[in-house]
Design goal:
Helices cover about 45% and strands about 15% of the residues. The chain has one domain: Sufe protein. Chain: A (Alpha-Beta Complex). The chain has a three-stranded antiparallel sheet with strand order 1-2-3. Strand 1 and strand 2 form a beta hairpin. The N terminus is likely disordered. With about 150 residues, the chain is α+β, with helices and mostly antiparallel strands. The chain binds FE2/S2 (inorganic) cluster. The site of FE2/S2 (inorganic) cluster has 9 residues, from helix 3 and helix 6.
Amino acid sequence: MTKDNKQNHSTDGENWIYSEGVRDHFFSPKNVLYDEANYAADGVGTVGSPECGDVMYVWIKVDKKTGRIKECKWRTFGCASAIASASMMSVMATENGGMDLKTAQNLKPQQIVERLGGLPDRKFHCSVLGHKALRNAVLNYLEYAK
Ligand code: FES
């Protein structure tokens, strides 16, 4: 988290002021999937949070020619920070022609948090759900793409 981001947040758990990015992605989440039964994903990843017990699902479609992620969908039973983080993660995974699979596997929660403009420290674990579920979705794809 940058110094500026820290200045935008109270992390005492009483008076959180979420960044513009977190509020945008929480109120207008991108790439949420509600009907996975009718979505032909190439890879699926699930992860649960030991901290809070919440769950994140990620589904990806991969362009077989380029090896890049062309769609990244998700759904979570997590909090506002998890929703905003997953939404941002899905944008990052598919922007600029799509992330290659190696980059997606190495995506760090810090990168997601940076793009959101920061998260309160005690909410950082929420941003971990999206990147771990994405990594699992890529591994799932690679397992069946052999
Ligand atoms: S508190 Fe569980 S995902 Fe945020």
